[in-house]
Design brief:
It comes from Nothoprocta perdicaria. InterPro entries: 17beta_DH, NAD(P)-bd_dom_sf, Sc_DH/Rdtase_CS, SDR_fam. One of its GO terms (biological process) is estrogen biosynthetic process. The protein is 53% helix and 12% strand. The protein is of the alpha/beta class and 322 residues long. The chain has a single domain, classed as NAD(P)-binding Rossmann-like Domain (Rossmann fold). A seven-stranded parallel beta sheet has the order 3-2-1-4-5-6-9, with helices on both faces. The structure holds NADPH dihydro-nicotinamide-adenine-dinucleotide phosphate and retinal.
């Protein structure tokens, strides 16, 4: 099979960087990776991780998903504009009470996470339709399925992504865009992942001016959400490399599902969404976990953290856990 051109957005850090390097290092050399980032001054970590693959199976290009001209210039620079696999990964988070966030900040999140994908597809989808081939892989989130306390606008941006893709997927099936697969679109839905995203969101949350919120809301954000934030990432968090591994499996799968959740520790929570068409179940359970059973919730997180630490330790000793 010919080498597939893969364009990935947001490769300066995190999932994008890990995925670009993993695909560029493919032993069977099945991919030519165009690893893009909005600010090329941030290319050093990717260059270092790519090592000898740089200039061979991996090329770095500038692309800002909020700038149509930058997307067009990047796509035009690829031979025959041929993109076989597009990975829409660039994104940003935003946490806190909405009273303390400006509409401008919220628009930046929607512009990056949702309109960024729309701009990419407006440029790339027509070529895929003409060729009747192509696979679009979107790094969505568990928050594309389920809202989480103090993530209102971020969750809305990922819900928008999911609704957009679900609608387009029906049309795409008609064009049989992917000759190897039934679906030509795949939504990857990670839970918490330990990346720059986590650090930036937490730091911004800690610095947030909470004076526009009432006392109870401000305390809820500081003493419940921010206080537990690190623990949630330590207990349930995946690594960027882990999410990259899931993503490559989906790209190579014969018949990948439309949606793929990467974190089995998180699936019991997202399952609540599908279990109750009235929508009350997940809201009720999340409410109870946060406000009534916070000690049990926190103890469970600690227990999971301990189990994961022990299983890693026994792997380190060359003795896989049972
Ligand atoms: N970390 C997590 O817990 C989870 C993350 N996700 C999703 O995964 C994706 C990747 O995030 P992650 O790797 O964790 O976080 P990182 O912050 O490490 O990476 C985000 C990447 O997106 C880039 N980016 C932001 N805005 C733009 C833009 N306008 N144009 C091009 N690139 C841009 C960043 O570039 P720059 O360095 O210039 O800012 C960076 O390269 C996001 O879509 C996120 O929503 C989903 C579930 C969980
Ligand atoms: C599990 C859980 C919580 C927090 C979840 C978090 C913080 C998830 C973060 C997901 C991310 C960062 C996805 C990115 O796209 C709450 C609401 C505290 C209480 C209820 C159970």
């Amino acid at each position: 099979m010919a080498r597939r051109n893969v364009l990935i957005t947001g490769c300066s850090s995190g999932i994008g960087l890990a995925l670009a390097v993993k695909m560029a290092r493919d032993e069977q050399k099945r991919f030519k990776v165009f690893a893009t980032m909005r600010n090329l001054a941030k290319r050093a970590p990717l260059e270092e991780a790519a090592g000898a693959r740089l200039g061979k199976t991996l090329e770095i290009k500038q692309l800002d998903v909020c700038d149509e001209e930058s997307i067009r210039t990047c796509v035009n620079s690829i031979p025959d504009r041929r993109i076989d696999v597009l990975v829409s990964n660039a994104g940003m988070g935003l946490i806190g009470p909405i009273e303390c966030q400006s509409i401008e900040e919220m628009k930046t999140v929607m512009d990056t996470n949702f309109f960024g994908l729309v701009r990419l597809l407006k440029e790339i989808l027509p070529d895929m339709k003409k060729r009747k081939s192509g696979h679009i892989v979107i790094i969505s989130s568990v928050m594309g399925i389920q809202g989480i306390l103090f993530n209102d606008v971020y969750a809305a941006s990922k819900f928008a992504v999911e609704g957009f893709c679900e609608s387009l997927a029906i049309q795409a099936l008609k064009f049989k865009l992917n000759p190897y697969k039934l679906h030509h679109k795949s939504l990857i839905e990670p839970g918490p992942v330990v990346t720059e995203f986590e650090r930036k969101v937490f730091e911004d949350g800690m610095k947030m001016d909470l004076s526009a919120a009432d006392k109870e809301t401000a305390e809820m954000f500081t003493n419940i959400y921010l206080k537990n934030y690190k623990q949630i990432f330590q207990s349930l968090g995946q690594s960027a490399e882990d999410v990259a591994e899931h993503t490559v499996k989906i790209i190579l799968a014969e018949n990948p599902p439309f949606r793929h959740q990467t974190n089995t520790l998180y699936t019991p929570m997202t399952t609540l969404k599908y279990a109750d068409p009235n929508g009350d179940l997940p809201i009720d359970i999340f409410y109870k976990m946060v406000f009534h059973h916070d000690k049990v919730f926190s103890a469970s997180l600690n227990f999971i953290k301990l189990l994961r630490w022990r299983s890693r330790k026994s792997f380190d000793l060359g003795k896989p856990s049972q």
